[in-house]
Amino acid sequence: MNSLPLEPMIAPYRLRAIREFDLEGISQLYPESTAWGRSVAERRSWLQDAEDIAWGKNPKLRMVLEERKSGRALAGFTFDRKSEAVAMLRYGFRPSTAMTQIAGFVLARSFAFDVLNLIALRTDMVQGQNPLALVHEQIGYREAVRLRQWWRDAEGTALDFITYEAVNPAWEAKRGE
Amino acid sequence: MENNFQPEMFGERIWLRPIEMRDALAIAQSAEFERDPQLPEPVIPVSETAFRNWIASRSENELVWAICRTDEQEAIGTASIRSIDLHARTAETGMGLFSPADRGKGLGQEVKTLILDFAFDVIGLHSLNCTIDSRNLRSQRSVERSGYVLAGSLTANIPLGLGQYADTLIYQILAADWRARNRDL
Q: I want to staple A127 with a disulfide (CB 3.0 to 4.6 A). Which of A160, B43, B64, B159 is the partner?
């Protein structure tokens, strides 16, 4: 499969740590936040409880996908560590294009391997709900697990539940030795 | 789970009864059996008290049975249906026989048949999965014999220490597949 030109795709964006001025959109950025619809004070309280200084060893490390030109926070990514080697990637996007979302997954993968030194980064989703499904192979994710008819939508339709996984090339090389 | 309905179930050589406090010691002692050369690594010892705490505090969406030989009361293993989601009608299954001497004799197949019949026909679940260490070939063969199909693998999911990791395999079986399989047998 042809690979996508990743550099121009990710150039308009960067990942950065969450800041207090992101509080306004916190429920969109971090779906696990319990601060949805609450006052600014309550949202700030959630952020204070959730954040600490652990230099990348945090059990949950929250990052923001920022558009460089506007400084707007377009997405939130939570790296939820399962072990020293593996993290689940939770995500929340503000209304954005498919290309923006794909760029976010590319940057998250790079961050996981280049900064956190993880072996594997996983994210899961219901079939057909995210542009990642269309291009996962081209941006370094593989379909790791597909549970057939595992998810039921509001109408009761059974949909596949898919786990995508990016594996650190350094680990692949080590395992292949 | 609603009402936590959990009956005793009977196979040819084994029967299943809901796990009880008295089983904590047998589960704890299972780590003391001689190491099974076909399993990747020894079981890490856990105290009887820890298992008593686990038995007392199991969640409502988890059913665990003690596996006993027919006409005996002593547990020789455990079987479980966990993470029961009655909306999606999904769950995860697990099973283990304590003694290496009991493994590889078909007892596990009897247990799985009882558990799958109960999960699909009584609880009304639609799909089950189970996870297996990629190095545990016997368990892989066992679940495949029961009709589970490989759904995928998770890289470096099991820390082994010293920077080494093993993968986890995910298997799945749908109620429709189980029923079709039983019809064909």
A: A160
